Amino acid sequence: MIDKIKIEKAVREILIGIGENPDREGLIETPRRVSEMYEEIFAGLHKNPLDDVKKFHEDHDNGMIIVKDIPVYSMCEHHLLPFMGVAHVVYIPSGNEVLGLSKLARIVDTTAKKPQLQERLGNEIADVIIEAVDTKGVAVVIEAEHLCMTMRGIRKPGSKTITSALRGVIKTDSQIRMEALSLINGR
């Protein structure tokens, strides 16, 4: 679990390290606030995304199921700065079970709540969906802006990183892949 006392001590040391006074009025509560924030934004480290999965029985073939523009927030593991954007999730059920639509958003949320790479995040989301329900294929496309690129280093605000994780027929069948990607893009 998260050790909030260690985080508070570390944040205090960081403030001293950058030349700030952690005992000044505006910063006195900062170590506690940061530890509480870290407990929330890194909750995915201690939670299994499958715990929130709910499946429903369907008697007919639904074709592709797509949830677009799921807000996603995570922390770049290289700089501990946020990246944020949207995830688009597509899956094709193989059997008679489908996932609750809100559960797809929960899978994205839980999987993102840890130090992460965007490339890995998409793969983890796809793998959780495959583990949760029998599928013919899965696609996860993430579009995100990384603050490590916009506020430091190269300083290119507005630049987006787009990654995809493809599984099953969405990866192997070019016609199905094109259909999934065109539906994500609204065409």
From TrEMBL:
GO terms for cellular component: cytoplasm. Gene3D superfamilies: 1.10.286.10, 3.30.1130.10. It catalyses: GTP + H2O = 7,8-dihydroneopterin 3'-triphosphate + formate + H(+). Keywords: GTP-binding, Hydrolase, Metal-binding, Nucleotide-binding, One-carbon metabolism, Zinc. GO terms for molecular function: GTP binding; GTP cyclohydrolase I activity; zinc ion binding. Pathway: Cofactor biosynthesis; 7,8-dihydroneopterin triphosphate biosynthesis; 7,8-dihydroneopterin triphosphate from GTP: step 1/1. Pfam families: GTP_cyclohydroI. Its EC number is 3.5.4.16. InterPro entries: GTP-CH-I_C/QueF, GTP-CH-I_N, GTP_CycHdrlase_I, GTP_CycHdrlase_I_CS, GTP_CycHdrlase_I_dom. Residues 7-184 form the GTP cyclohydrolase I domain. Zn(2+) binds at C76, H79, C148. PANTHER family: GTP CYCLOHYDROLASE 1 (PTHR11109:SF7), GTP CYCLOHYDROLASE I (PTHR11109). Homopolymer. This is GTP cyclohydrolase 1. It comes from Clostridium pasteurianum DSM 525 = ATCC 6013. The gene is folE.
